[in-house]
UniProtKB/TrEMBL annotation:
It comes from Marisediminicola antarctica. Residues 7-233 form the NmrA-like domain. It comes from the Bacteria. This is NmrA-like domain-containing protein. CDD domains: TMR_SDR_a. Pfam families: NmrA. InterPro entries: Ergot_Alk_Oxidoreductase, NAD(P)-bd_dom_sf, NmrA-like.
Amino acid sequence: MSAPGGAVLVTGSTGNVGRAVARHLALAGETVVSGVRDESSGGGAVRDTEARVLDFENPAGWPAALAGVDRMFLLRPPQISDVRRVLFPLIDRALDAGVRQIVFLSLQGVQFNAATPHHAVEKYLRERSAPFTFLRPNFFMQNLSTTYRDDIRDRGEIFVPAARARTAFVDTDDLGAVAAAVLTRPGHVGKAYTLSGEQSLDYYGVARQLTAALGYEVRYAAPSVEEYVARLTEQGAAADYIEVQKMIYRVVRMNVSAFPNRTIRRLTGRPATTFAQFAERERAAWAR
């Protein structure tokens, strides 16, 4: 466990990752502050955590959110592309407030993709000599049950431009356990962890496993980048979001995300969740 100190502030606490982090920290007996966008979303905070308003776009509220906090789990909300304007000042304020560890949710392969916002945040934390820990997870299994759920449920297809590349997917619950471990145990400041599952699948294999779990056929559409961008545009996605997605899948097609590892097992003491386990557990998300 960590040395006696203050609370842990978890940003993005009502999303898949933030909720998992807050839950595992609470289970570990930590004092957890769940950062929520506004008071109305405070009811969505994890049980046994304190909800505080943390609006990334409202610096006036940051001191109250950071009061009594000595560690922070930081993620970049998808709608924020200008990290220099928003996240950099929050990092500065956290350091000024005495935060002794910032665990940043980065991106696998970020060291090969300098155009991503995550790369800029990592670079800034290093420039500030901040007490950072970088978590660089592979693609979340939950992308299939949230972002791409409707394509799967309504069309029976997975529509991402990954070609035949393989991915060692990560369950966000495993990521939450990892974050709790590095925030509560010594020896993780200044480290960067690449987090992959222990099996590697292409999207044809993902489609087969979903078909087996859901009881209806799911196929991988294997769209081109142009077809994928057209679908996102049709759905009303913002231009900067589309550019980030294009960069991410460019890295996927390079097979940077293909390699499994046992880092989750090493940091948490338990094996990574398999995609079959995840699909069975979350099958209600795709129920027709």
